[in-house]
């Protein structure tokens, strides 16, 4: 710690003029790793490292010998001081985070929000796009809670506990059994059974609220670097706006609305069942009135929740620390009060009430499916309109990436809800088959229809895989000739050449992802619509509905039903077992962490129960580090990002003050900035956004390989200044054995870019290009009251050299 303190006190004040002959300011290389994570020892190439800033979740490390580098600038005249920012624990830390796998549909629909096409003059369409995605996200919450209600209330409390054969197989349900099933206790009445079973979905809703609140406090509550927005710069890209990485107000508002929606769903499942019984001819008038009053209150509360979701989107132009405290506090409590009233109403004594058949889940799940389909189609119309205003050939699925991904999120929610219901029904029915001679009727027919369309969907996916195999084989043949051209003086080895060509062809499959997602999403939408029509038209499962059809049709329907039920149950089991394995196995947990690295980069703008956004911690960390170091030392800085680390580096550079940004160089390698983010998130990483970043940083170089399945060129040159992309690096570095490579050189693909001599060349070029002097303040712009952000903050902050900027904003 003494060396760290000495290094910090030795940092010079950039406001003091440099004396003649004084050493050139020190240079810093800030390394940011990519997906999967690593250790500071591996990043810095030294087993002795010291944490200089941060905590056990995310921190900056240096080699032990470099801790006091600022006090010895002469020792670093020809080389930069390496620092490593390690953020892997944000996504793949302890085992409990593996349970985030069950939140996968919420994460996917949140991605759809950020896949909006680039919009220049379509503000109303942009707001409509965000509104539709938030509504789709709300239906997913209702779907998940409705599935929990189906399992606990319908299958367990209504069907199994009310059937003698099922109670005999599950003695733990004996206290709920009616007299006809050998029971007759206080809980034997159907309404009281439903009221007790409502605890499970209500607890699930409370758990989601708790996880969302806790993860926000742990990950996303970090204060970004306060600065005034530059009207010209932030107009080009929202990632540079002061409030982009701080969505406290919206997340709290959506969390309250989704929590209320979940509780109201449980209240409706319990209360409407009892109200339906009370509306029978000759029923008690008082209970009938109470039932209508409860239903009306639930409808009004549901409409208010929808209004809350529609009313406000993200606020990014300023750091919004305020909260809608009344709404956030009282909306979930009001929904909880309605749930308590529904439970009390359902628990009223109704001696003549018996549970037979299914609860009306077909209508519930059918309504959710219909609303989701309509919202996705509306989202596609809005996205197409936005895309026509600013078309870009590189945009995935011609601007329809967001609607396609939203459709896949709904499909994932259907697999999880349907698979859970199917497996619980099979478990409760023991050796029987629900709905086909078993002791219970099983889940609603719509869930069986949805399971039955999975085999046709798999046929579509198999055709896609066959098409990809053909295109890959064609690509391999083309690459065979290219490999020979890339290594013209080498003695050709057929096996070696084919391996290199195969790696290149496999890496190119990433560029086929838009076709795969688009076709799969369209097929899912059409097959889901067919399942909805079939369930509503027949009211029966596919096998029963096809009894009057020709024999081959009936056989196909029964086969699809059996296979679909098995597959959807298998999908649910895979979700659960993978999460359980990841809880215990660090290697599996790291695999899931890679999934979160890609999927949770974006803030929770659509679904508050999605896994937390690690970038709301990582981007402020990097921004504060670059800002304070450059202001305190007057030195040069290269931020060096690999893979997902390059995305974090770019996002952090956008958040810097213009004077600091002009003294920062960007080195990216294996970067998905254009290949993945630019195509799928064009509004934020499209050509206009990347071009503005190229102009605003001092210099930028990008390294890529043809064997890399993730990274690629950023395709910026010409009007932006010097070309960003270096020519594609050779991989492997040597075709055969040479004096420099006596053993066969490996095909590196996405990793080990530092092993290529081009990496050191580009780093040295960037450090040589950076200007050591601090640029002067820009002149104040005329008109419209434009504010120079540097006029409001001292170079070193109010705390003196190295002090943070004024956090009062």
Automatic annotation (TrEMBL):
Q: What is the lineage of its organism?
A: Bacteria, Bacillati, Actinomycetota, Actinomycetes, Kitasatosporales
Q: Where is the composition biased (Basic and acidic residues)?
A: 1-21
Q: What is this protein called?
A: Integral membrane protein
Q: What's in the keyword line of the UniProt record?
A: Membrane, Transmembrane, Transmembrane helix
Q: Which domain of life is it from?
A: Bacteria
Q: Where is this region: Disordered?
A: 1-25, 770-809
* Bilayer-crossing regions: 131-153, 194-211, 256-277, 289-310, 330-348, 368-387, 399-419, 453-470, 516-539, 559-579
